[in-house]
Design a protein that fits this description.
With 284 residues, this protein is α/β, with parallel strands linked by helices. It is built from twelve helices and nine strands. The N and C termini lie far apart (63 Å). The site of glutamine has 10 residues, from loops.
């Protein structure tokens, strides 16, 4: 903590201002929001308590804890890994560095899946990570859900999220379809789709902290997507849907791959920023 902060009796508000300035001087875009979130986490309060007590003394313990959290954020650790939580599709999910932090863009995948769901359907979520896609679907629809991931550590996080949300699901450790059996009405996935040669250009928060296996899609980012599209028909019922999150520049290629495997009603759906985000197709 700097000298000025030591000399005065720090309040929640002065700590917040200090944190915001430290983070913005490190070039962190969301310095304002992150300073708030980290202070509330350090003080174990919510935003309304902050505004009620902002001019009260913050206490030494809170201040010391806050400084530690700020240092971690300054090292570009994502705020969600620091607090252990991320917000997605109306719910809070536990996250650890074993899983990708749920992105707002991925909410489109859930919304598109929901449009095509009927009660009682059997849904498989490949590369489930935190489980945020499957669990969001199961939260609003009565369906039978199976989540799979190559990483047992990710599945442990997904399982905790399932318990917290009070939902039923089955989890299978599997390299895509290798250990999956049976047929499904719908397969969803947010697979790794970043081209291997541009991984280094991702933000330091992403490339320095998030699991690279959840991001690296190999050549052109399409290697995992190709495998899923090739193998999915054997695991889909007739007319069953395959929905994949894709990169902003992968729409044409993915549509072609879907057509090659005989998928019908193929469509590329854009996100709120008009970037191609989800590919969908139906087994013939
Ligand atoms: N959308 C994520 C990102 O830009 C990547 C997710 C993925 O590869 N599935 O970091």
């Amino acid at each position: 903590m700097n000298k000025v902060m030591k000399e005065q009796e720090y309040t929640l508000e002065s700590l917040y201002r200090y944190g915001r300035d430290v983070l913005s001087s490190c070039g962190i875009m969301e310095a304002d929001t992150d300073a708030h979130i980290l202070l509330e986490y350090a003080a174990q309060i919510d935003r309304s308590s902050y505004y009620l007590h902002m001019y009260d003394p913050a206490g030494k313990k809170t201040a010391e804890m806050y400084i530690k959290l700020l240092n971690r954020r300054a090292e570009r650790e994502p705020v969600q890994y620091i607090t252990g939580e991320a917000y997605f599709y109306g719910h809070t999910f536990l996250v650890t560095p074993d899983v990708l932090i749920p992105r707002q863009d991925t909410e489109i995948l859930v919304a598109e899946a929901e449009k095509r769901l009927c009660p009682g359907m059997r849904v498989l979520d490949l590369c489930t990570g935190s489980g945020c896609v499957l669990l969001s679907i199961l939260n609003s629809h009565h369906a039978e859900g199976i989540g799979s991931d190559i990483s047992p550590a990710a599945l442990a996080v997904a399982m905790q999220n399932q318990k917290r949300l009070g939902l039923q699901a089955e989890w299978i450790e599997s390299d895509l379809f290798t250990r999956i059996s049976g047929v499904f009405d719908m397969i969803v996935s947010n697979p790794p789709y970043i081209a291997a040669d541009v991984l280094g250009e991702l933000q330091p928060e992403v490339i320095g902290h998030e699991p690279v296996t959840a991001l690296d899609g190999g050549l052109k980012g399409l290697e995992i997507i190709k495998r899923i599209i090739r193998e999915a028909p054997a695991f889909l019922k007739k007319d069953g849907w395959l929905l994949l999150e894709i990169g902003f520049d992968q729409g044409d290629a993915v549509k072609r791959l879907l057509a090659e495997q005989g998928f019908k009603e193929t469509v590329i759906i854009k996100d709120l920023e008009h970037r191609e985000r989800v590919a969908a197709g139906r087994r013939s």
